[in-house]
Design goal:
Layout lengths: L1 H17 L9 H11 L6 H13 L5 E6 L10 E6 H8 L3 H14 L3 E5 L5 H9 L4 E6 L2 H13 L5 E5 L2 H9 L7 E4 L5 H11 L8 E5 L5 H12 L5 E4 L3 E5 L7 E4 L3
The protein binds S-adenosylmethionine.
The site of S-adenosylmethionine has 22 residues, from helix 6 and helix 8.
């Protein structure tokens, strides 16, 4: 744990030294995406509502019996433990900054079909759904008790159109991906290990198209995640990859030179 944190701190310093500003982005398409979308800081009505919901969850001390199929799992591939609602929210959810970025990216991409791998309390799902109220959205969560809390949050926002697929991603990913005609936007935010991340990417690949956008959270969270990110961004299907340290964005456009951008965020 301490070693992982130390490693992430070093990686962050390397990122800080190498990340570029807009002046160094020569691709017109990426320049526009960066300046108009990624760096945009305008407030949106949805932001304060979602952050108010998060604040409420961060005050809840009630215990949930959670099941972890991801990085916290033991050799049997899962681990149950009691966790307070506030702690699940604090340690699992996207930051406000990243949530708002996801909102802007979804608005920009105008996706019709959206898959989120990793729901937790549904904070990122709320950002996605607020930006795409007409879209088909499926979100996946292994822990039924946490998924129930996410459902409560969606109900609070009167959002009924989000489908939650409950169970281990490894078992359900193929079936879930097959529910889509195409994947326009994917947020990969669960089971932050190299092989599962590579596998989920391979599974979504056949449904991606030149207009798709994929966001991977925590690309520098561990050595495994970093290896997965580096392999994925080099994949022939990926044309543009953007490393914002906390998350990575993948584009699949055909009429653009393949390039990896490390950008300040
Ligand atoms: C980082 S959290 C998702 C956070 C959410 N996207 C947000 O920002 O609000 C990852 C979630 O994925 C779930 N998860 C991790 N590995 C899983 C697996 N193999 N199968 C099913 N669920 C898994 C965890 O239970 C956790 O709630």
């Amino acid at each position: 744990m301490i070693l992982r944190k130390l490693r992430t701190t070093i990686q962050f310093l390397i990122y800080k030294l190498s990340a570029k500003s807009s002046f160094k982005v020569h691709s017109p398409y990426v320049f526009k995406l960066y300046t108009d979308v990624i760096l945009d800081r305008s407030p949106q009505p949805a932001f304060s509502r979602i952050e108010k919901q998060r604040s409420g969850l961060l005050r809840q001390r009630s215990l949930l019996e959670t099941t972890d199929f991801g990085t916290g799992a033991n050799k049997d591939n899962y681990k149950t433990r009691f966790r307070q609602v506030k702690n699940v929210t604090r340690y699992s959810s996207v930051s406000p900054k990243l949530g708002k970025l996801i909102y802007r990216l979804v608005k920009y991409a105008e996706p019709e079909e959206i898959l989120e791998i990793g729901t937790a309390m549904g904070i990122s799902t709320l950002y996605i759904a607020s930006a795409a109220p007409e879209s088909k959205i499926i979100t996946m969560e292994g822990c039924a008790v946490i998924a129930e809390k996410a459902r409560e949050n969606f109900n609070h926002f009167r959002i009924q159109y989000i489908e939650i697929v409950m169970g281990n991603f490894d078992r359900l990913i193929t079936k879930t991906v097959n529910k889509f005609n195409k994947l326009d936007f994917v947020l990969l935010d669960g089971n932050h290990r190299k092989e599962p991340t590579m596998d989920y990417f391979r599974q979504i690949l056949p449904k991606l198209h030149p207009g798709s956008m994929v966001v991977i959270d925590d690309i520098h969270w561990s050595k495994g995640m970093e290896e997965a990110w580096n392999e994925i961004r080099k994949h022939e299907a990926v044309s543009v990859s953007i490393d914002l340290f906390r998350a990575g964005i993948l584009l699949f456009k055909k009429d653009i030179a393949k390039e990896n951008f490390v950008l300040r965020f």
